[in-house]
Amino acid sequence: MDEETNVIVEETFFSYLTQLEVLRAIRYQNYVTVLLMEPDQELEDRVELKNMAKIFKEEIRTTDVIGRINHVRFGVILLHADQNHAFIPSERIRNRIKEHFLVNNHGITISIGGACFPNNSTDDKTLVSLAEKMLAQAKAKGGNIIFFPTNEAVL
Predict the structure, then answer these.
(1) What's the pTM value of the predicted model, to 2 decimals?
(2) What CA–CA distances, in Å, run from 36 to 27, 29, 33, 128, 144?
(3) Phi/psi of residue 65, each to 5°?
(4) Could you read off the pLDDT of 33-89 as tens digits, one per residue?
(5) Which domains can be identified in the chain, with CATH numbers?
């Protein structure tokens, strides 16, 4: 557990959990969506990172999994959520980050890339890779955007 943000830390552990949840989704014929989230601007201090993680945790279900993948990138595993259901918490997170940091005069926004199993991928590695590509597209479009494989940027 990351002491700074109080979420799972370590990319390999997050990858293991993604693999586990995809296998569970196969077994029980459910959906699982991976979201990758990263701020569009440099964070000034640890307090901003901690506030960001707090917002993430408040906007997802307690049964979903959140992890810190690197210094500023976070991943979320949304269980039993197809792309349409994953968009709802994604949009809440994007809006809350923008509002929180605007009120505090920091002007920080977030980009989110997501991919859904089994709609966009047949295995965990492709799922995460696709979510990474979607995050890169969101960043390339200027940020403060949610990107999924089957759509254009969603503002």
Answers:
(1) 0.89
(2) 24, 23, 10, 8, 13
(3) -115, 130
(4) 999 999 999 887 888 888 999 999 999 999 999 988 888 899 999 999 999 999 999
(5) 8-147 (3.30.70.270)
